[in-house]
Fold this protein.
Amino acid sequence: MHCPDAKGLVAAVTEFIAKNNGNVLALEQHVDPLAHEFFMRVEWDLENFAIPDDKIGDYFDTLIAKRNRMTWRLHFSNERLRLAVFVSKPSHCLYDILSRVQSDEWQADVALVVSNHPDHASIAASYGVPFHHFPITKDNRAAQEQTQIALCREHGVDLVVLARYMIIVGAPFIEAFPERMINIHHAFLPAFIGAKPYHRAYERGVKLIGATAHYVTADLDEGPIIEQEVNRVSHLDSIDELTRKGFDVEKITLARAIRRHLERKTLVFGNRVIVFN
Amino acid sequence: MHCPDAKGLVAAVTEFIAKNNGNVLALEQHVDPLAHEFFMRVEWDLENFAIPDDKIGDYFDTLIAKRNRMTWRLHFSNERLRLAVFVSKPSHCLYDILSRVQSDEWQADVALVVSNHPDHASIAASYGVPFHHFPITKDNRAAQEQTQIALCREHGVDLVVLARYMIIVGAPFIEAFPERMINIHHAFLPAFIGAKPYHRAYERGVKLIGATAHYVTADLDEGPIIEQEVNRVSHLDSIDELTRKGFDVEKITLARAIRRHLERKTLVFGNRVIVFN
Amino acid sequence: MHCPDAKGLVAAVTEFIAKNNGNVLALEQHVDPLAHEFFMRVEWDLENFAIPDDKIGDYFDTLIAKRNRMTWRLHFSNERLRLAVFVSKPSHCLYDILSRVQSDEWQADVALVVSNHPDHASIAASYGVPFHHFPITKDNRAAQEQTQIALCREHGVDLVVLARYMIIVGAPFIEAFPERMINIHHAFLPAFIGAKPYHRAYERGVKLIGATAHYVTADLDEGPIIEQEVNRVSHLDSIDELTRKGFDVEKITLARAIRRHLERKTLVFGNRVIVFN
Amino acid sequence: MHCPDAKGLVAAVTEFIAKNNGNVLALEQHVDPLAHEFFMRVEWDLENFAIPDDKIGDYFDTLIAKRNRMTWRLHFSNERLRLAVFVSKPSHCLYDILSRVQSDEWQADVALVVSNHPDHASIAASYGVPFHHFPITKDNRAAQEQTQIALCREHGVDLVVLARYMIIVGAPFIEAFPERMINIHHAFLPAFIGAKPYHRAYERGVKLIGATAHYVTADLDEGPIIEQEVNRVSHLDSIDELTRKGFDVEKITLARAIRRHLERKTLVFGNRVIVFN
């Protein structure tokens, strides 16, 4: 939750929980001193909670949120999200996501895999996940995206993951999944925005390469950052070697970002992501 | 603060603050699921707070802490701590601490520097800090420590920093500064406990070297860990080179731990340190 | 190659290459000042090389190695190694290895997967790799290992990877694959040698967890280290959370070690691994 | 040394050393496959070397370098370089450099400290180093720089270190110290080129902050990179906190770069730095 800061907000929320017989398990709160905005995430135990699950939101909104002009979300820890994974030729992030889901590392399912190439159909198949091939041209992109949006809705997709999907996604698709579309960019943003970051990293002679997972917004590679990581490289590394070393950074960075989203520990405010612990 | 977990604790504390006109600026709370212990750190703005500063502790103890069997500490953000820095031959941590204090990076003063060698008297002098040389032998150690304890008390020392002090400190000294004595061990504990860790790291052929800052307890190198860091090394690094590379890891690790202590963001529970953000 | 140090060794080797029309592409050499041992790795272009591939070893041995008491190995860059992957219940390293091989990230094939549990048969199957289940008891271990050795030989296995295989491997197996068996230990060795490292890391309250990939020798967790990596953890992380965070460190560390081995960039000397760049 | 690649180069150089009774201690060589350029660094023992120290350059140039169109440098391991440290208000890099030099961590001396502010005169004085205050305005900058160049020459300065010197250095100064002027930029280049990188890092919501040490060239913040490092930050960090956390990254990054230069392990080729191990 977040709202303009005021005295008594933590007390109000935690009293609401305590009076209804909930036990707070974890709470993180802070005030942004520039924006004078209050931010909080609270986790509580619902055992013997006085308000039924499907009424908690209502009660909270009426009793606490509205009078404090709060923006808030309520999630239950047994939720299982459905992912759509969009991928082009590089397959490392796709493999990583599928194996984490199959081995129950995440509380999520992969609803479908989408690609602009047919190559990875067999990977999806071996994990028992539907695969959809959408060839993209300049002319058909907008139409194809409409079909993709419909497909994602049909499959009950909660989160769209652009797992090295090399097609620029249009505004209607982004707007259909606000703060629910994560991209992995293969550079340490804001360095090397746009195409061929490893080529440019090579030319610039950087000593670390990086990856950035961010929510997708209308501005390419400018969305709010969830997670970043780097790895050391040297003058001996060719562009191919940078690319290969980057694969590991990308898949770990993307996986951490997805996990934070699944745990409901991300909160977007302006162009920044608050990532709770 | 920490205490056995119960419902309503966050609400009780934050209501105490809100009712007395305080504004919570930052709060971190969690329950240890194994120990069923409640932990919390809360920072609030005292402007217009209804209870005078010197009574807050009393009121809090009576109204909140006692009835919940809480262990708690209250600190004010304008406190300035006084450090005693104990050092032997390697001087990198001493230099680092003195320069941070002199450049006002920390809200602290170095009250005195103590060494078992006379070598670093001129360093202390150049920073305008009293220097005390205590030659240590097996026979005089206990007696010298009594003098050191007295000296620290005389100088109003709040925190004793063993900044690569190669003498084992006796129980009376440790007991005189419980949770107020920090040591930097030049290894990634619990690897290489005890003497000559870089020699042993070299022999073991490790690929990373580390440093550990911990509160000092009666068991050598077994105290609760505040901070750890590592750095990459290679087969080309001699023991001297490991030692030199280790210097940077040690001074950064120790500085982070001291800062966390100065910010009052550490809480020792059993043999673990909760380090708040 | 390595041998007792002497003057003229680099010149002798590189002259051998130059006189036979080879072009040196990369060379790393150093002298261990304690052991007075010479170490070198040299890569050269075989285009128009005067000596046929299958005679190079002979010539080198006669003309250079014998007279300098050199230990040496010759590898060709088009070699493709065959891996046996041994795994117990945790599957993250298995998935990671299979997906790297399937996506041609490595110049290697997985010849077979072996497990003491039947659980991962379907993973191996989905990657088209033979799976062998060997139930292990105290009584049958030695016999089962003999079968495993035979099986590995039959499949032409070049490298045995213990990818979170929770069974202690016996001396005959280790001796059958000297410097060709890599284990991933889920701790920053020499910290937390042996069982349940994450439990012990939790109890010790460490602030970083690590993983170590090493060649397997007769002494449990004491073999020469190829690669180590760490990741930051906090007091909030339960043992389960440490374990999960550790998975990523383990799979990346193991993959880097395997790659170094595949690239023929590792050289074991005593209990240390020289890892060339 | 570097030159267009050709067969026999390593052999030619190492034979020159061996024939004159030198023993190669460490050698790194590689060929850049895009530029077809040969790069090598070789360290050898001069004990009983047949050519006197002051003739080695001559002989090498005549016998090896000229006929191979080599660019080369010869350094002796007992050289002690003289540094000029330029600094503005932030003092952390200055302290770090002075303490490393005073504790003999580096084979170097600080010849003088230069600042556009008078504030740090006492720091320099406490380390016994001459301090020169050059107030800089738009109008006097060129003239002041001429004096600074003369002063550096007078003091026999080998390396100019811009240790958080917030004045843009003009072309004549840069040309007077080609590949002998190192700057620390307080960002992970090429991200946040130019002024106020921590402010911009805050606004962009990055999850890691970085620092870059590079040789200074005519293009601001575009010079060849020697070393980069990063540190993790969070949404809780204010601009001041980013700045403070950045201090440690900056001083460590700059120190590593200076050390590499002092060890004569850097070689600039185009806009990239080869950093030998």
